[in-house]
Design goal:
2 domains; 11 helices; 14% strand; Rossmann fold; 207 residues
Amino acid sequence: MTWKAIIYDLGGVLVDWNPLHVYNDQYFESEEKRRFFFDKVCTSDWNERQDEGYPIALATEEKVNQFPEWEAPIRDFYGRWIEMLKGPIEDSVDLFRRLKEGTDLKFYALTNWSHETFPLALERFEFLQWFDGIVVSGTEKNRKPFPDFYQLLLDRYSLKAEEVVFIDDNIRNVKAAEALGIESIQFTDADTVEKKLSELLHISLHG
């Protein structure tokens, strides 16, 4: 097998983005309220709508109108979004650096991310400049796990499914990539990814 590229997810793989950095144990009066907020108010599906290009301001006002008693935490979802962006996942970024320096592979990012907030990440994280290309869901008005979003990246950079390795922390996205014939690794930690990549690429990566 001749591998040509590695495709990275960003949030949860290279970037420690998590709403719980804002909605921590002190934010709500009870764990029950926090569960309700994420299950019924600012849900994953709602957030992914903005990742697919829906305007943040409009989404926020609609949600406040629907749940006026939850206005403060709703507005904090994007109002304090930068606080959810805790920092790089250091050992994963270090692995990325070693791959970049130690192989002839190309590197791409395929990310579910609002086009309105992604520039903040680009400004903050220098390692995002290491990629040969980044495909952002909010810009493309498409997202994982839809097959045509993966295909968009492959077509844009003249790649074939069997030539690339995909890394994502979300098993849903991993399975969608595998269904397209893309060799995929679910990110749990950098050491596990390094071991699997070493086996796939037949290389040894030294820190």
